[in-house]
Amino acid sequence: MKYDSNHLKRLIRLLILPILLIVSELACTGTMEDMLVNGQPSFQCPTAIPVIQPTAPPGFATGIPQPTVTPVVIRPPRPFYLDDNIEAGGIQFRLSNVVALSGTKPIAVWQLKVTNQRSTPYEFFPAGQIVVSQLADGQIGQWGASEAAAREAGLAFRYESYHLNPRETQTVQMAAYLPGSTPAQFVYRLDPTTSSTSNIITWVNQPNPYC
């Protein structure tokens, strides 16, 4: 999928409402500082190098140079892919298990795994920070998770913020109603106080073609 930076800017403008939801949700807890993530998101493919066994006859040199591997690194504004372990400021994010279901309306179901690898707490509000941002038929918008969609999909989902202490992991299953089609792209806002493209994680709904 060719990625257009102007397309990303349109998506960012569509995320203004989730910002208001996040601020409202966290206003009572006073944990906005714990929610901020400093650092650009990145993903690097595993770079395991195959071992070549020497086959030279006795008495001949057996030293065979190993192949050189250049790692594939993805950073914004390029999109990430399903099951990529994305690192950003000591927090790791992984989107997986995206499914489209039929209900009273089409339902997108997905799983978000968040791991706090830093030495301070991390707070996130998935219902306001991650949305389906594009459909397979080309529609662009913001379709966020809801308890109603989760109930219809048979999921237990908390429409609230999650607190992670250092080294803790939280996996959240989410569901959102769609106007039609299937999810093609997701967006997660790392910092709800800014519209900087470096603070946006964008996933496309397909496996990583590089690794």
Please tell me about this protein's structure.
This protein is an alpha+beta fold. It has one domain: Immunoglobulin-like. Helices cover 17% and strands 34% of the residues. The protein contains five helices and 13 strands. The strands form four sheets. The chain has a five-stranded mixed β-sheet with strand order 3-13-12-8-9. Strands 4-5-6-11 form a four-stranded antiparallel β-sheet. Strands 1-2 form a two-stranded antiparallel ribbon. The chain starts with a helix and ends with a strand. The model is unreliable at 12-20 (pLDDT under 50).
Question: Looking at the structure, what is the overall shape?
Answer: globular
Strand-residue proportion: 25-35%
Label the structural class. Answer: alpha+beta
Strand order of the largest sheet: 3-13-12-8-9
**Architecture (CATH level 2) name:** Sandwich
Give the class-level CATH name.
Mainly Beta
The number of helical runs is 5
Straight-line distance between termini: 16 Å
List keywords for this structure.
211 residues; alpha+beta; Immunoglobulin-like; 5-stranded mixed beta sheet
List the helices and strands and how they pair.
Layout: H1 5-13, H2 16-26, H3 32-35, E1 43-44, E2 73-74, E3 80-82, E4 86-88, E5 91-101, E6 107-116, E7 122-124, H4 126-129, E8 130-135, E9 140-144, H5 147-153, E10 162-164, E11 169-177, E12 183-189, E13 200-207
